[in-house]
Amino acid sequence: MDHKGRQKRLQGALGPSRLDGLLVVHLPNIRYLCGFTGSAGTLLITEEKSLFFTDGRYTTQARAEVQGARVVIRRKPPLVAVAEWLTANRRTKGHKGLWRLGIEGEHLTVAGRSRLAGALPSNVRLKEAPPLVEEARMVKDAEEIERLRAAVMLGAGLFDCALTAIRPGVKEAEVAAEMEYAARRKGADQMSFETIIASGERSALPHGRASDAPIPAAGFVVCDFGVILAGYCSDMTRTVYVGRPTDEARGVYEAVREAQQAAVAAVRPGVSVGEVDGAARKLLQRNGLVRNFTHSTGHGVGLEIHEAPRVASGQTETLHPGMVITIEPGVYIPGKWGVRIEDMVVVTERGCEVLTPTSKELIAIA
Length: 366
Ligand code: ZN
Ligand code: ZN
Known about the structure:
Elements: H1 3-14, E1 21-24, H2 27-34, E2 42-46, E3 50-54, H3 59-65, E4 70-73, H4 78-89, E5 99-103, H5 110-119, E6 124-128, H6 132-138, H7 142-165, H8 172-185, E7 190-191, E8 196-199, E9 219-225, E10 227-229, E11 232-233, E12 236-242, H9 247-266, H10 273-286, E13 298-300, E14 307-311, E15 324-327, E16 330-333, E17 337-340, E18 343-347, E19 352-354, E20 364-365
Parallel strand pairs: 1-5, 3-4, 5-6, 12-20
Antiparallel strand pairs: 1-2, 2-3, 7-10, 8-9, 9-12, 10-11, 13-14, 15-18, 16-17, 18-19
The structure holds zinc ion (2 copies).
C-alpha cells in the first residue's frame, strides 16, 4: 500500500486547510495513512513530519507495520505524548506565532480533547479539521480495489450457505451462524457488521439482525451480510422467498430489482450521488412504492463498512473513478414484508462495474 504517498498528499492539503498539523485518532484513518492495524495509537502529521505514537504493548507490531512515519513509544496516553512532543519540538512559527493543530471532530472525544488541551503549549490552537482523510479514502487505488474485490467474492460465497440453511422452522440465528462459521473457515478477519437475516414480518425491519425467530413457511427473507478480508469490507443483500411467491410478492420484488438496476445504471463519473439515489426513487415512485423506501440508496465501503460518500437524496458529492459504493434500495411494508437488493460497485472511467457476482433473479425456496 502507498502509505508514504498518502501521507505526502495529506501534508499538501494542510496549508490550504489553514492547518500546521493534523492529529489523526480514528483507527481506520491511521491504518489508511501508515498501515498500523492495532487498537491504540495516534498519528501526528505536520507539513514536514509524520510521527506515530503508541504504547509498549504495540512496540513490535508498530515497528513491523508502520510505514512512512517515525514510531514513538511512550508509557503515557498517546494524546499526552503528542502534546509533550509538540512542546519539545515545535520550532515552526505558524500564522501570527500560533500553531494550528487540526483535530478530527467526529472522532476525538470530549475527554480526549481536554486532556490534549491541558498538556499543549499555549500557542498551539486546536481547530476542527475538515474530513481530509475521509475524502482521500473515497477514491480507492488499484491495490484497494483488488482487496475489495476479494472481500466481495468471499462474502458472496456465503450466500450459498444461506440458501442451504434457510428452511421453514430454522431459526434466523442458525442461518447466520452457518454463514459466519464458513466466513472464518474461508479466511475472513471477521464479519463486517452483524449479519441480518430477517424473515416473514421481520423482513420489514431494514436492520433486522438475525434473531431466534423461526423462519415462517411462506414469505420473504432478507439476507444482508459481509466480511472483512485483509482489512477491507464487503456488503451485499439478497432477498429470497420461502414457499411459492404470490403475484403481489413478485411485483414488489421486481419493483425493487428495477430500482436497483436503474441506480446502478446511473453510476458514472461526474454524476452526483444524489442523482444516483434519485434514479432508484424514480422507479419506485412509478410503482407507487417510493414512500416505503425509507433509507438512502447506498454508501461508500472500504476499510469501514459505512464510509463516505453517502448515496442519499440531496447529497452533492460527485462520483469519480475508483470510488466504491453500495446500491441498495429496499421497500418495507410494516407488519407484512420487506425486500432489499444490494450490490457493491466500483466507479470506472465510463460507468461502473458491479463487483457482486450473485444473480438478482427471485429465488424461491420450496
Ligand atoms: Zn448491507
Ligand atoms: Zn450497505
